[in-house]
Prior knowledge:
The structure is a single chain. By secondary structure, the protein is α+β, with helices and mostly antiparallel strands. It has helices at residues 3-11, 19-37, 45-56, 61-72, 103-116, 146-153, 177-186, 208-223, and strands at residues 80-88, 92-100, 120-121, 131-139, 160-164, 167-173, 193-200, 227-232. The strands form 2 sheets. The protein has a 4-stranded antiparallel sheet. A 4-stranded antiparallel sheet has the order 5-6-4-7, sandwiched between helices. The longest helix has 19 residues, at 19-37. The mean pLDDT is 91.
Amino acid sequence: MGRAFEFRKGRKMKRWSAMAKAFTRIGKDIVMAVKEGGPNPDANSRLRAVIQNSKAVNMPKENVERAIKKATDKDTANYKEVLFEGYAPHGIAILVETATDNNNRTVANVRSYFNKCNGTMGTQGSVEFMFDHTCNFRIPANGIDPEELELELIDFGAEEVFEDEDGILIYAPFGSFGTIQKELENRGLEILSSGFERIPQITKKLSEAEVADVEKLIEKLEEDDDVMNVYHTMEEE
Length: 237
């Protein structure tokens, strides 16, 4: 097993732990997808992927349809994806992915969280290089051999394929998302969910007290409505 497997194992169930937060994030993803490629999922691969993710977190169909309709309204503000970088206490690098309709508000909030938790905001590019930007897909196992599938998908960019209790996960570089999505659809394989993650290249082990210091900052960031994901270089059990 490779780094993607260990990363996924450490973060299991954390990303979508709060259902209300998950619905908020899916709603923003729908707005961005519709603004970018239109409301028809058949012609908009990004929207198709978001709808798959909405099913994975049991978001009601009517919520999805309402979000798509709202996104087509020209008065609905679009969200801009902004990446923030910095350090938590004890030298832990932090990447914060946000989707915001008010960048000034988001900058001020993120900066305040770093300041209150003894962290420091960094400049663009200060820690991003410490993470590999990846895409991932989950499909049903259905008797599929992960090793065989990995060999078949290498030419499409796949780097790691493994099975867990919820199906088969495929990891690839960020830029391979569209190619792999198309290939899985061409094969008639159901995509249960898909997305993007930033995997730390190196992690740092901390004491229990130090972990608590870092988690205080991470929790404050994750509670913010504009924050979509928080990644860090702290070693996780």
